[in-house]
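User: Reviewer 2 asked us to show a designed sequence for the structure in our supplementary figure. I'm pasting the structure tokens here. Could you produce the per-position amino acids so we can include them in the response letter?
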């Protein structure tokens, strides 16, 4: 892991715009591409260990995710349901991926190199999870259509649609504030940086729906008919623990609500 004595550590700018390039520090921030200098590089695994697996709240979130995902996949494995299986299967991968992408960015990055690597990994996780959640939604809509079933009849379905809409907005907004060619749509780079805190706020609102939607699925006819009360309890408890762990790590100063 690179030395934690990077000058960016002490700089409050990391606090307010932890992911965005800082034009006043060209040596640190000139590109998001990997740099040839070792001191300017952060490796993915140590970063993930430090950001996503350190501290009680992170471990609680990880344990919850593991519990919910493994229990659901056990139910899916023991109750094959054709095309329908792809819906909960892909959505649980998406929830896992989106949450990992959030957990990764919650602690303050100690160096500018960590900041760049965190942004790279965040993008990989959030874009892959986007593909999974859109595919998972397509499977349930198609499966309902070929069986002549009505659409959007339950709270789970309604929350699912809201979740998909929030994720579309969240990813579009994130791209607008991060990618230089798109930043002119919001003004200039400075204005884009100032908007980052709103990406965080709406990200946490989206996360609430991302957890509430699979929780509501616990009352769906399919899950009630194909899983035990214990299994549904474990999936629900896992999702709640994951949410509690992630929200416990929110830093109000990074949301612009309080300066530390
Ligand atoms: C964040 C994750 C999820 C999202 C965004 C989501 C989204 C949706 C949407 C939009 C529908 C309605 C499709 C339509 O009416 O045409 C739906 C239906 C359904 N989903 Fe999910 N889903 C998620 C997770 C899950 C999970 C984990 C299960 C577990 C079994 C599940 C089970 C079902 C079932 C049984 C239906 C059909 C009944 C109903 O419409 O409520 N979903 N989902």
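Assistant: Here is a per-position design you can include in the supplement:
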């Amino acid at each position: 892991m690179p030395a934690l004595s990077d000058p960016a550590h002490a700089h409050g700018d990391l606090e307010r715009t932890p992911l965005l390039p800082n034009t006043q520090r060209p040596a640190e921030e000139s590109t998001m591409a990997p740099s040839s200098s070792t001191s300017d590089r952060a490796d993915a695994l140590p970063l993930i260990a430090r950001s996503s697996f350190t501290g009680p709240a992170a471990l609680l979130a990880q344990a919850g995710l593991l519990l919910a995902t493994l229990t659901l996949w056990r139910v899916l494995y023991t109750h094959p349901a054709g095309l329908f299986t792809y819906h909960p299967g892909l959505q649980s991968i998406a929830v896992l991926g989106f949450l990992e992408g959030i957990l990764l960015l919650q602690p303050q990055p100690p160096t500018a190199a960590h900041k760049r690597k965190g942004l790279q990994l965040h993008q990989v996780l959030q874009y892959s999870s986007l593909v999974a959640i859109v595919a998972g939604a397509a499977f349930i809509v198609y499966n309902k259509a070929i069986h002549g079933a009505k659409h959007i009849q339950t709270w789970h379905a309604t929350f699912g649609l809201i979740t998909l809409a929030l994720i579309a907005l969240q990813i579009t907004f994130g791209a607008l504030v991060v990618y230089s060619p798109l930043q002119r749509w919001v003004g200039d780079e400075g204005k884009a940086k100032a908007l980052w805190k709103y990406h965080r706020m709406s990200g946490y609102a989206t996360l609430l729906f991302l957890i509430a939607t699979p929780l509501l699925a616990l009352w769906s006819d399919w899950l009630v008919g194909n899983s035990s009360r214990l299994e549904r309890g474990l999936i629900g408890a896992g999702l709640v623990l994951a949410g509690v762990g992630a929200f416990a790590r929110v830093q109000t100063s990074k949301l612009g609500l309080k300066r530390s």
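For the response letter, you might also mention the following. DSSP finds eleven helices and no strands in the chain. The chain has a mean pLDDT of 86.
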